[in-house]
Write a structure and sequence with these properties.
The chain has about 220 residues and is an alpha/beta fold. The protein folds into two domains: about 120 residues, Rossmann fold; about 90 residues, Arc Repressor Mutant, subunit A (Orthogonal Bundle). Helices cover about 40% and strands about 20% of the residues. It contains eight helices and eleven strands. The strands form three sheets. Strands 2-1-3-4-5 form a five-stranded parallel sheet, with helices on both faces. Strands 6-7-8 form a three-stranded antiparallel sheet, covered by helices on one side. Helix 6 crosses helix 8. The longest helix has 16 residues. It is elongated, with a radius of gyration of 19 Å. It starts with a strand and ends with a strand.
Length: about 220
């Protein structure tokens, strides 16, 4: 996935710095803004490719900023909130937010959601002819037939298929598969790939599109 400009509007310096570090590691260009008033002024001058927005901010709250941005742009907005009751969640989404994450959160989860929103915004849902990734329903279709994948297999397929030709190491894939480090062995990726290939064969999809790169990991090669 190509780099994006991502703004993190968060008044907690530790959280903001953590997200900025993770965004930078993924090749994005992050910017941290610590209060709502400063964010409003910055957003009036320019807009990022994606906005990570805390709900509770000094100066101007996140909901107000979200509504203001949504009036003039459809950039992806990811809300962060420590208020987990259903009303606040619905308010966040009704204000125009595309997704939300409740604190405390895993940075990996936030990065996964950032990738999903950027893919959606850039229309990267058809990695090649015959394939379709439906991120809303978390499913993959091959020539109109559903590939019955587990959540982990779905994430694995998306990581590979949305970056065709790029070699991803086992460590990179393992980092993207779970929101928490429940699996620490790189060989777990091999097991998931084996299961994924078996399910591709079951719907007559080309299992060889997931190519093993000896000593490194895997890459996705769309069929001609």
């Amino acid at each position: 996935m190509s780099a994006a400009v991502v703004w993190v509007v968060e008044d907690d310096p530790k959280i903001a710095r953590l997200l900025v570090d993770y965004l930078s590691a993924e090749g994005h260009t992050p910017r941290a803004i610590g209060d709502g008033a400063a964010a409003r002024a910055a957003l009036a001058r320019d807009l990022p490719d994606l906005l990570i927005l805390d709900l509770m901010l000094p100066g101007v709250d996140g909901l107000s900023l979200c509504r203001e941005v949504r009036e003039r742009s459809d950039i992806p907005i990811l809300m962060l909130t420590a208020r987990v009751d259903e009303i606040d969640r619905l308010l966040g989404l009704d204000s125009g937010a595309d997704d939300y994450v409740c604190k405390p959160f895993s940075p990996r989860e936030v990065m996964a959601r950032v990738r999903a929103q950027l893919r959606r915004a850039r229309g990267q849902v058809s990695p090649s002819a015959g394939w379709r990734i439906d991120e809303t329903r978390q499913r993959v279709d091959w020539q109109g037939e559903r590939v019955d994948l587990t959540p982990v297999e779905y994430r694995l397929f998306c990581q590979l298929a949305t970056q065709p030709g790029r070699v991803l190491s086992r460590a990179q894939l393992l980092d993207a598969l779970h929101d928490d480090p429940r699996e620490t062995s790189d060989r777990a990726v091999d097991s998931h790939v084996k299961n994924l290939r078996r399910k591709l064969i079951a719907v007559d999809a080309p299992a060889e599109c997931i190519v093993s790169v000896y000593g490194v990991g895997y890459r996705f090669e769309p069929p001609p």
